[in-house]
Amino acid sequence: MAKITLENLAHSYLPNPKHEDDYALKELNHDWVDGEAYALLGSSGCGKSTLLNIISGLLHPSQGRILFNDKDVTNAPTTQRNIAQVFQFPVVYDTMTVRDNLAFPLRNRGADPSYIKDRVQQIAAMIGMEATLDHKARGLTADAKQKISLGRGMVREDVNALLFDEPLTVIDPHMKWELRTQLKSLHQEFGHTMIYVTHDQTEALTFADKVVVMYDGRVVQMGTPRELFETPEHTFVGYFIGSPGMNVLAADVQGDKAVIGGTQISLGKGFGAPQGQVEVGVRPEFASLATGDAGLPVTIKRVEDVGRHKIVRADFQGAEINILAGEGETISPDMNRVVFDTAGVNVYSNSWRVTPEVA
User: What SS3 state is found at 106?
Assistant: First the structure.
């Protein structure tokens, strides 16, 4: 297990990068705590896999250093970093049995045969492949092969880190849940440092101790699922975390008041006079429909009943506002206003959260 430090790290796929936009991975300075489970979350092309491949040694960064337990491994090959990596698509030895595939990393390191036998049996049970241990990998389905890849990544107990690059892409939905649970159990039992790349917020939030949200080649927030939900530090975090994501509306903010589309609302706390592109962000959970004169005037476009609650899609001057309503809540035609709970209001300047003033 290892603490992983990223020091002034950046990477460009261009030979002579000159501007920040030339970098697929903007400059990073982060510590990944020894023994914690992290999820790298973001949309395709944001730099998640680039960062993972730099940590593993498959890619050399354009600048900066990578340290494992304060030892510089920037120029060390993957074999010397003592990591296990599982890729998006299955990487297995087709001519070997499932048992031999799982045992391969241990045999390569001269582990005791009795330990190999017990450990392979344990991992096979974890990934649900005990019945196929003596089958050749060649004839197995894609999701079965990926389970072998996962098992081979988890079979060693002495690794510095386990790196997963969207490993459940080819796994059926029910098995995804099972394997995520098993990965979480493995982490709790052995305390490996784990980094899990995904664009699926459910995978990230259910797997990780800390979620690292990436956008346009940079880390925009690292935090617990609760921190990401309650105080998104960047509008992308608010948009990407949650279903539906955060409502973001252009606003003119002065102190504890905001004017949105000509209507003034209370923010509940002071934000000074932020400059630049100023926006108010409110999650659908903190928005409610009302009658009367309070709040923003809206037109309800449709109501989606998803069982546990209703999602109300409303229009405000051409912008969509999403509202969560209770399953038993009545939504009447005269509900033409949306009111925000000030406890859930955030203000952003140029996409970054503005810290409210302390009373």
Answer: helix
